Amino acid sequence: MTDTPAVQRVHSESPWEETMGFARAVAAGDRVLVPGTMPLVGGEVSGEGSPYEQALLAFGNALAALEKFGLGPESVIRTRMYISHTRDAEDVGRAHKELFGAVRPAGSIVVVAGFVDSRVLVEVDVEAFRGAPE
Known about the structure:
This protein has helices spanning 15-20, 51-67, 89-100; strands at residues 2-3, 7-10, 25-28, 31-37, 40-41, 44-45, 76-83, 106-111, 122-129.
């Protein structure tokens, strides 16, 4: 983790972080942002063909990034789910409800043209609240 007084960053095994120059999660003030999280396991796309499984994996990776800041699902205030096929909305929504049904963050689901890897069906963003800095 790279720390500065106002901003903290964590990195993951995503092969695109280095080539594109981004962090898995960035904490600034009372917010932690976890953008563009894919269903990667060991740096490879997993759950091929299953939007439900890919959603669980992608959210799991996002939650793992939040854990590095001492946060869990209860801290999530916003989610964004990007899917490449409208038909996958129900499966992705079911995975979201399993993980966040008790929390009920603000959420949206957006159909996009595609992802950087054609095997990916789902990508997610998560935003969490960590309270006022001490």
